[in-house]
Design goal:
This protein is an alpha/beta fold and 362 residues long. It has two domains: 45 residues, no CATH class; 285 residues, TIM Barrel (Alpha-Beta Barrel), CATH 3.20.20.70. Helices cover 24% and strands 23% of the residues. It has a nine-stranded mixed beta sheet. Strands 1-6-5 form a three-stranded antiparallel beta sheet, with no helix packed on it. Helix 2 crosses helix 3 and helix 7 crosses helix 8. The longest helix has 14 residues. It is globular and about 65 Å long. The two termini are 23 Å apart.
């Protein structure tokens, strides 16, 4: 049960005391070691009164209803609306961050919206959403708020979706994903050098999270890689990444290759060209990934879902709008009967590409 110190500050579990009086945060592999009053790199977890507290509980950078394909998830309740929210701060320091005004915020006034977990679940249900997404910044750092919200959602029959970089320690990871139904994890690259220089993190903890999700949970998993020219777009790296995915996660985990645009501390790089994404997709398919997609570019063919056996078009997509639907009520190909990996309703959702901001009235 969450214990409040103030309306926005709650106690946390994942830390331990060091001999020199500092406290070590054990939520993520950064293992921030904090003197009294100090905050971790994420900014929202702080050494206060001889414990590590979370300082942004119940406060959000905003609420909106998105198409679930925007997370991106293509094999989890396609076409449905998903209630989305985040907080501020992040436990990585990606130079290319495209939500930097939220994830890198050090101004708590950025968190303009307030809502208790049960209020989020009730409003999501009232708006006809099938699920709630913990997104915009990484839900790892608002662990307690996300878990409480997911519990409230489950009580109302709503699904929970984590959009995360997967940079989290084993014990909190197990608690967090016990309440999640689906996840899209950013596999940002496939080299330790990239992770260290560009994100300030490490690759191995992310790979461990991916294997944990695939083999030790029932969480539906999809992957996203932002392709940055000259950084993680070599054929050799895409070959190694996609071979690892098939070998360690299996061929049915969908992969999304998305286009970079210059932002935050990486404005010297050009936008990713569509042909670079299509090449990555082709390598993935060649190496046995059954469902590979491109993102942030318009390519209906490369955004659509095909049967892994007969090649028939199962789900047509034009940006976030669904067109063709050739799955039967059991989620199998209507042409050959092969099951398509994922979680599908009997009929597709019709939310389309709309984005609707939501005021919680607080």
């Amino acid at each position: 049960m969450t214990t409040f110190i103030t309306a926005d500050t709650v106690t946390t579990r994942y830390w331990h005391a060091l001999a020199d009086g500092r406290l070590q945060c054990d939520l993520c592999p950064r293992f921030c070691k904090l003197h009294e009053g100090q905050r971790g790199l994420c900014f929202v977890r702080q050494h206060l009164l001889q414990q590590i507290v979370m300082t942004s509980y119940g406060r959000s950078s905003g609420f909106a209803i998105d198409p679930i394909e925007k997370k991106p998830l293509n094999h989890f309740l396609p076409g449905t609306p998903i209630f989305s929210f985040g907080t501020a701060g992040c436990n990585l320091a990606c130079k290319f961050c495209q939500n930097w005004d939220i994830s890198k915020s050090r101004e708590m006034d950025t968190l303009m919206s307030r809502a208790a977990p049960d209020a989020i679940a009730k409003v999501a249900l009232q708006h006809g959403c099938s699920s709630v997404a913990y997104t915009y910044n990484d839900p790892v750092i608002f662990h307690e708020y996300a878990v409480d919200t997911a519990q409230a959602c489950r009580e109302l029959g709503l699904k929970s979706v984590a959009v995360s970089a997967g940079y989290v320690c084993a014990e909190p990871r197990a608690e967090f994903y016990d309440w999640m139904d689906a996840a899209n994890i950013d596999l940002k690259a496939f080299s330790e050098d990239y992770y260290f220089k560009i994100t300030g993190g490490h690759l191995q903890p992310v790979l461990e999270t991916l294997q944990y999700l695939k083999h030790e949970t029932q969480v539906w998993l999809e992957l996203t890689t932002l392709i940055i020219p000259g950084e993680n777009d070599s054929d050799a790296e895409i070959e190694a990444m996609t071979q690892w995915v098939v070998e360690h996660l299996g061929p049915d985990v969908p992969m999304h290759f998305t286009a970079f645009h210059p932002d935050w501390k990486m404005t010297d790089k050009p936008r990713t060209q569509a042909n670079s994404l299509l090449k990555a997709r082709a390598i993935a398919l060649k190496n046995g990934v059954r469902h590979a997609y491109v993102g942030n570019v318009h390519d209906k063919a490369a955004d659509s879902t095909y049967c892994s056996h007969c090649g028939g078009l199962l789900i047509g997509r034009d940006w976030y709008v669904l067109s063709d639907w050739n799955l039967d009520t059991a989620g199998c190909c209507k042409f050959c009967g092969t099951a398509c990996a994922g979680h599908f309703d009997a009929l597709p959702g019709r939310w389309g590409a709309k984005r609707q901001s939501v005021s919680m009235g607080f």
